[in-house]
Here is the input.
Amino acid sequence: MEILLDPDSSVLIAQVGSAEASHTMDTEHLLLRGKHFTGPSKVVYLGDVATALMAQLSHPDTPQFSEPAGFNEQHWCIETTSGDLKVRIESKPYWAFGLFTSGYLNVIRLEGPLHLRARLIFDTVSSLGHHPWEFAHWRSLDRFTKKHTKDITSKSNEELWKNLVDAARQTLSEEIAAMAERAEEILKLGEDSDDFDAWQHAIKDDLHMAKQALAEDNGPGVERALARLEASLIQLDPRLESAHVEAPPVRFATDFEQQNNHSVGASSLTKLNHEESIPFVDLSSPTAEEEEQ
Here is the structure.
């Protein structure tokens, strides 16, 4: 049975491989903190899956516990947002009353664009030392899914993980192919360049590095190689030699320039006063979050 990818959300179940007391919960604001947090807090065992997944998020909001950890430090629910992506992770025992780490799983709920969900899962799986869809206690997992997630089976869960990984891998492969096509076009235009051979070698090397990184499921490595390639193509492209950025029609002098007799004309200042109002934003005061900390 083929599992189709939902355009808006995904629910996955992961086996926790290991867990350490590397984080705390700010008991006043229910926010996730590091283990060296000095305010009132409680130890939380995040586990390797949750730690790896949140490490892949780009500039996320501070994760907050919607279900705080109690006596059991590994039983909790945490939520955060990263751009257009919403993440909710539940840590629950599913075998032996949670006496051992292998008896815990994470229910991961993602909401947002498919390409963001796929890339997050791709990077998370790549950073883990085990496949999160492979469980230590399969019979207990089946009992858990029948009781808590009736639409999910161990088989459909595994296929969903793999399909999201494959979707991200396909996107990266298409980006490499598109860049390779662009490189071929620009190399033909730059054949008359004095250092054409050096550029050609550098471009082919970066393409090889991007493909190698993809083969190793190294998404950031693919992006770094493509970024280097992009920079090379911009420098080699002869069509960009005459390109330039127009200077702004009105130039506003700094105080330093005015002190050195580089003044702004009266007409320019008049234009600024009548046509543009620049709001003042005070960045010297601490934010509400900083005051809470």
Notes: Confidence is low (pLDDT under 50) at residues 242-285.
